[in-house]
């Protein structure tokens, strides 16, 4: 069972329950991994790196999180964010020698005054899956666009050279 406290960070499990993985001190911004000691050191290190990215979150409209996290055989990236009044969910794509997985890190922090609003215990599994699909689509479109622009630049340079060499009489 997971007891949610303010400034706790939890992983959302497939069944909708939360598993505490760390805390963030509001005053000092210090992070602490609270994973069980049985967790591999690489998992603890990736979790610590993700907590450090979470603490640097700039809020609405500031979803750049500094690229890929590489620890031992694990590569992780924050690819999206779901923002609520009492909870922020960081969508993480993770690859390792064990395969690929998607993790949702829920940061239980009240963003502004008031006692109501969506909290981490009210997250919808369906909403999280939909947000992952949308974030992965954006990521794939951006990758495809960059690849197209790179190919087009090479092709247009080749066309220019061809026309330049064969122009005129």
Task: Give the structure's gist in a few sentences.
The protein is α+β, with helices and mostly antiparallel strands and 169 residues long. The chain has two helices and seven strands, in the order βββαββββα.
The end-to-end distance, rounded to whole angstroms, is 82 Å
- Name the average pLDDT: 81
Regions with little confidence, pLDDT below 50 for 5+ residues: none
The best one-word shape is elongated
Please tally the β strands and state the result.
7
Supply the key terms:
169 residues, alpha+beta, 7 strands
Account of the protein in words:
The chain has a seven-stranded antiparallel sheet. It has two helices and seven strands; from the N terminus they run E-E-E-H-E-E-E-E-H. With 169 residues, the chain is an alpha+beta fold. The protein has one domain (8-166). Strand 2 (18-24) and strand 3 form a beta hairpin. Helix content is 34%, strand content 28%. The mean pLDDT is 81.
């Amino acid at each position: 069972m997971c007891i949610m406290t303010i400034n706790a960070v939890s992983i959302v499990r497939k069944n909708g329950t939360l598993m505490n993985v760390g805390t963030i001190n509001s005053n000092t911004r210090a992070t602490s991994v609270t994973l069980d000691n049985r967790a591999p050191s690489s998992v603890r290190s990736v979790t610590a790196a993700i907590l450090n990215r979470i603490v640097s979150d700039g809020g609405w409209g500031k979803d750049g999180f500094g690229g890929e996290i590489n620890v031992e055989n694990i590569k992780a990236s924050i690819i999206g964010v779901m923002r609520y009044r009492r909870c922020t969910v960081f969508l993480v794509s993770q690859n390792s020698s064990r395969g690929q997985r998607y993790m949702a890190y829920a940061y239980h922090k009240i963003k502004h005054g008031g006692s109501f609003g969506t909290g981490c215990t009210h997250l919808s599994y369906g909403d999280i899956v939909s947000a992952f699909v949308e974030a992965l689509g954006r990521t794939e479109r951006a990758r495809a666009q960059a690849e197209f622009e790179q190919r087009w630049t090479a092709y247009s340079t080749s066309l220019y050279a061809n026309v330049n060499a064969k122009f005129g009489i």
